[in-house]
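explain this:

___
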Amino acid sequence: MSEESDSLRTSPSVASLSENELPPPPEPPGYVCSLTEELVTKAREELQEKPEWRLRDVQALRDMVRKEYPNLSTSLDDAFLLRFLRARKFDYDRALQLLINYHSCRRSWPEVFNNLKPSALKDVLASGFLTVLPHTDPRGCHVVCIRPDRWIPSNYPITENIRAIYLTLEKLIQSEETQVNGIVILADYKGVSLSKASHFGPFIAKKVIGILQFFLHGSDLNSLHANLPRSILPKEYGGTAGELDTATWNAVLLASEDDFVKEFCQPVPACDSILGQTLLPEGLASDAQCDDSLRAAKSQLYSCY
């Protein structure tokens, strides 16, 4: 018998192997740091991130998830877990709690997180309700601009605005640069009626929340310019960066459709469907069910980012 035929006879195909004999799935690609040397230094000084221990820390968090929440349906990739470690300055326990909060939030608020993808929010994006300014602030933070006056309540419910906010945050946080530098949320209340402003009251804050920092302003731009330089602001906000452009960020989101479909449009395994009921921090579930959806959004943001 020829050598070729002998090989065919003695080497069964993958299809003929039993389920237990199938080769393991390929490992996800290894982590490659994209931070500049300057940001590596910043992460070391401000986030307690040590490059030489980074993968060890990720593995420690991964082991904790597998041990304490074996049925949790979550990515365990290095890059994904780093997001939570950085947000909690590499405190393993707090990073794990943040990860659980994040998934609890997603399970407990299906009207916001189910089918969360850019194509489902075209009306909100077209309204100009929110965008990301093209330039970062001096610290390297991206600036998310929210304009409540662009929301017409008769067109769609307020939860669609919240979905657009989460969509934008999820896209931004994928960047390691954002994980280190953070995000500024700029809420523009100029020209907003009192009735509409009451819906957005929970965003009236100037406080660091994980990687988020909120600024509120009305007609008086002095406080805004004290925190954000005119050079990065559009002329609508007394800046020198030209007209406010919403189309560019909308295009960025719409180009990420496949990523959001993969992450937010898949069924949750039945084995962890109870997660949102049992692991949600005290007080969060009641807020998520209250009539004021923006109040719930504030609670979720405190716990998830």
User: Anything to note?
Assistant: Strands lie at 130-132, 142-146, 183-188, 208-209, 212-217. Residues 1-19, 191-209, 276-291 have pLDDT under 50 and may be disordered.
